[in-house]
Amino acid sequence: MLPDRASADGLTAEQRAVVGHRQGHARVAAVAGAGKTTTLVKRVLHLLANGENPRRILVLMFNRAARDDFRAKLTREAPPNVALPEVRTFHSIGHRLTQSLTRWGYLPPRQLLQADWQRERLLRQAVMQSLESADGETREAALDADRLEAFGQFCDLVKAEVATPAELFEKLGYTASERHFIDAFEVVESLLESAGQMTYADLLHRPLRCLESHADARRRVEGFLGHVIVDEYQDINEAQLRLLKILAGRQAQVMAVGDANQCIYEWRGARPDAMLARFDGLFGNASEYPLSYTFRHGHALALAANHAIRHNRQRWDQLCLAAPGNPLTELQTGVGASALLETLQRWHANGRHSDEACVLVRSWSLSVSVQLQLLRAGVPFRLAQEERFVFRLPLVQALAGYLQLAREPQRLHDPAHLALLFSQPTTFVAQERVRRLVDELARTQHWPARDASVLAGLKPGQRRHLKRRWQLLCELPKLASWPPAKLLEHVVDAIDAEKILRRSAARREKGDDDVRLLDVLIEQAGELASDPEAFIELLRNPVENRPDGVLISTVHGAKGLEWPLVAVWGLNEEDFPHFSRDNPLSPERLEEERRLYYVAITRARERLLLVQDGGDHRPSRFLDETAVEDCSRIDRAIRGGRETGVAVREPEMIGTYLERIGQACADLEHLGRSLTLHARQPEAPSPAAAAEPVGVAPWRVGDRVRHASFGDGEVLVVEGNAANPVIDVRFVSAGRRRLIASRAPLTKLS
Ligand SMILES: Nc1ncnc2c1ncn2[C@@H]1O[C@H](COP(=O)(O)OP(=O)(O)OP(=O)(O)O)[C@@H](O)[C@H]1O
């Protein structure tokens, strides 16, 4: 007997409670895969069947895909000829409100900027105006495509958070080189106003500000709704929340559905407390409804997800339970590419297809090693964002170009090749100038005289930068016999690539990502040391998305999706959770990273593989927190294993889990009694768990070290953050080098 699922409508008791909710606001906490759409469709049909006017019901979905899916399901399930309520996204509601407020004379008419080029032109113009009195180099850097994009995001976020640009700037910790964002935002606003234009973010921001400041306008939109149902509530931002409050007015009953544990859009203005304290603050008392059963995966993964998320403080205290009849889910951990490739091979050997599998990464730079490994192994794959193909990344193209130049010195005469190597990493000089200079260099093969016209107008710093780059390029053919990894490290060091990448990145996270990309490439080059040509070939490989291939996606891109096989790649400290010396983990950021991890692992249906790098790259603390061994053993016990006494880390939580599934499934009722759980002695904390956000390496002046490329040396200086210092080392043959201790391939010699 399945008491929880016995009804004719096929709903669980929890789902039925949501459908039949009677009066007042409601908060529905739904775990991943809880069948929210099924439940909300039934809720709408229930309201209609009870005589509610469809025009007084509004369903708000997070994006268009979710809206279309919901509309389709609702139409399918509704009796014929029944009028259905509106299902909309926040933006479409904002659009309609803007039209009404314009018609009523509260807002001046404005045209929506739809094309990317229009938006880019606007941002460019605003940056130029705000930096009118700055020097050419600063302006050039601010107009870099990535930085311009970051400015666009900044403008959107100011509106999403309903903040002032100065407040947002402080709050998000932008660097000093982005200070112009604050003034440039105001310039954007006046340009939009004078041209009678608006952006997508204005679709919510303008009507919200207007309604908040005009009580009479507010009176004209309030009071029409009896029910507002909001899906993915955990990811809505401040502007959406406040608009919802106005739309709901005093009469409408709001049903907020979501999962605070899956709030992963803080960088777009979402806050996990939207679902928690903020909801109470805005709407007051609400009935609480859990949707605790997932229909996606088995007990092992449900237990793993519960273990992982319980380390967060800011969360709903809710267990995720696997519904009876779900597929079994095997959990597996592994190290390096071999673990991933073996799992995929076995998957194929069992007759399963590549397109049932997905590899999830925390950020795109981590996908580079997956791509290279799959290419080497001949496993077809596709990317959720095609421009992320490794060979299409400008930095990768340039690094392959440096290696190529070492082997083909005649490329020093090729202006296009020189232009590529002068552009990545950037030299902070305008492109046309670089173009003129490389044409001359390709022709003369000499650095121009001090008074040459191609150098006119360049600042001393820019000249030094460019000259150093040219000297490196001339040196490379002499180093042709070096293995690629060593050559790449030399290039990275000679042009101070890490520093440039960090300086040129608009957000710290982007800088970290680029630097990580360098590390990944050097690691990969090291693995292919015996075949340097193959490595260059691999980087320049013009592969395309294979529709039948394994999908590679970021965790953000996987929101709401699921696959039979999911591999989470790059489970190492600094990668996932993501942090660096310049971007350390605050307790809030750690919780956000953990929610992202929770979303990643709960995408799997039948098999979850958790992959970490080997070597001295520390495993992610999340691996330890997930307690994979405990979860798999309890899963075996649930499936009828003979275990009676089991030592686990979280006996209380597992006990509650067993009790709950016993209530839902009579076959399992005995479990809570027959399985005795003991608290396992805590193991010595793993280095990852024990470490502070950034790993502690007790480096001392005088330590003797060995570097994978530079050989032996002695530590001369230890500086910076004690947990992750920068050290100066004098190498016997490679001279003095400055290194980030935790990143460099260093071992201490006794
Ligand atoms: N009571 C139930 N019994 C069995 N299966 C169910 C039940 N409710 C939902 N499901 C199944 O769970 C799966 C996910 O359901 P649905 O499409 O409604 O959820 P969703 O909104 O897409 O997912 P999520 O809850 O992750 O947002 C579907 O295959 C659906 O048939």
From TrEMBL:
<dbReference type="Pfam" id="PF21196">
    <property type="entry name" value="PcrA_UvrD_tudor"/>
</dbReference>
<dbReference type="InterPro" id="IPR013986">
    <property type="entry name" value="DExx_box_DNA_helicase_dom_sf"/>
</dbReference>
<feature type="domain" description="UvrD-like helicase ATP-binding">
    <location>
        <begin position="9"/>
        <end position="298"/>
    </location>
</feature>
<feature type="binding site">
    <location>
        <begin position="30"/>
        <end position="37"/>
    </location>
    <ligand>
        <name>ATP</name>
    </ligand>
</feature>
<keyword id="KW-0413">Isomerase</keyword>
<dbReference type="GO" id="GO:0043138">
    <property type="term" value="F:3'-5' DNA helicase activity"/>
</dbReference>
<keyword id="KW-0347">Helicase</keyword>
<dbReference type="GO" id="GO:0005524">
    <property type="term" value="F:ATP binding"/>
</dbReference>
<dbReference type="Pfam" id="PF13361">
    <property type="entry name" value="UvrD_C"/>
</dbReference>
<dbReference type="GO" id="GO:0003677">
    <property type="term" value="F:DNA binding"/>
</dbReference>
<dbReference type="GO" id="GO:0016887">
    <property type="term" value="F:ATP hydrolysis activity"/>
</dbReference>
<keyword id="KW-0378">Hydrolase</keyword>
<comment type="similarity">
    <text>Belongs to the helicase family. UvrD subfamily.</text>
</comment>
<dbReference type="InterPro" id="IPR014016">
    <property type="entry name" value="UvrD-like_ATP-bd"/>
</dbReference>
<keyword id="KW-0067">ATP-binding</keyword>
<dbReference type="InterPro" id="IPR027417">
    <property type="entry name" value="P-loop_NTPase"/>
</dbReference>
<dbReference type="Pfam" id="PF00580">
    <property type="entry name" value="UvrD-helicase"/>
</dbReference>
<feature type="domain" description="UvrD-like helicase C-terminal">
    <location>
        <begin position="299"/>
        <end position="560"/>
    </location>
</feature>
<dbReference type="InterPro" id="IPR014017">
    <property type="entry name" value="DNA_helicase_UvrD-like_C"/>
</dbReference>
<keyword id="KW-0547">Nucleotide-binding</keyword>
<keyword id="KW-0238">DNA-binding</keyword>
<protein>
    <recommendedName>
        <fullName>DNA 3'-5' helicase</fullName>
        <ecNumber>5.6.2.4</ecNumber>
    </recommendedName>
</protein>
<dbReference type="GO" id="GO:0000725">
    <property type="term" value="P:recombinational repair"/>
</dbReference>
<dbReference type="InterPro" id="IPR000212">
    <property type="entry name" value="DNA_helicase_UvrD/REP"/>
</dbReference>
